[in-house]
C-alpha cells in the first residue's frame, strides 16, 4: 500500500484567501478519510489527476474521472461515498473568493464566483499548477509569496475558464485500438488474460500497448480489468445473496482471498462489509 498526503493549512500559506491546499495520492482505497464536511463561506476546488472518485454533495452523487474538476460552494456539505478516499491522485484548494480590492484577484475570483459549476474538464495543466503551488511553499525566499499569489490566480482563472466552457468534455479520446480492448474487457470480464493478450487485440506490441492504454484511460490494463470486476461484484452483491467464493470464481479471480484484497483496494471495505451496507439498495 502506498499513500502520499501533503496538506498545507492557513498558517503555512502566505496567500490570505487560501485556507488549505493539498495533494492525496494512494494506490489503495482509504476508508473513513473523507466524511461529511463543509467549508463555511469558502469554495473548494478539487482536481482529479488520476483515477476515479465517487463523491457526493448535498443530494447529488458524482463519478469523477481523470482531468475533471469538482467544485463545492459555501456551506455545502459534501464527502466521499462511504467516506472512502481513492485509489486516486487528487489535489484541492479551499479558497475565499470574496473581493479584496485587488484588480487581478477581484476579476479572477469574481469570474469563478459567478460562473462556477459542479464539475468541469480542466486537463493536465491543472496538475502542473497545483504541483507548482506545493513546490513553491518549500522555497524560503522573498519571491515565494509573490509566486504563490500568481499561481493561485492561475488556478482560479483556469477553473473559471473550464466552467465557462460548459459541461465536462470527454476526459480522454480513446483510439479505436484501445476501444477494441475496452469492449473486449467488458464482454469477457472473467477471462484469464494478460497484457500480451490485450496487446494482440489492439494489434500493438505490448511495450507500446501498455503505456498507450494508461494514457488513454487513466488506468493500467490490469487495474482497469479489476475496476470492472469490482463494479460487477457490487451489482451482484446488491442484487441478493451470493457466495463470495462463487462471486470470485465467476469474475475470474484465482481465489476468494485475492478477490477480497482487490475489492478492498477499490472500495475500502471487504465484500461482506460492503454487502451489509448496500444489499437491496438501488
Strands, total number:
8
Q: What share of residues is helical?
A: 40-55%
Q: How many structural units, i.e. domains?
A: 2
The CATH topology of the largest domain turns out to be Jelly Rolls
Largest beta sheet, briefly? 8 strands, antiparallel
Radius of gyration: 21 Å
- The total count of helices amounts to 10
Any guess at the CATH architecture of the largest domain? Sandwich
Tag the structure with descriptive keywords.
Arc Repressor Mutant, subunit A; globular; about 280 residues; 2 domains; 10 helices; Jelly Rolls; alpha+beta; eight-stranded antiparallel sheet; about 45% helix
Describe the model:
By secondary structure, the protein is α+β, with helices and mostly antiparallel strands. It has two domains: 163 residues, Jelly Rolls; 103 residues, Orthogonal Bundle (Arc Repressor Mutant, subunit A). The protein contains ten helices and eight strands. Strands 1, 2, 3, 4, 5, 6, 7 and 8 form an eight-stranded antiparallel sheet that branches. Helix 2 runs antiparallel to helix 3. The longest helix has 22 residues. The chain is globular. The two termini are 31 Å apart. 33% of the residues are buried. The mean pLDDT is 88.
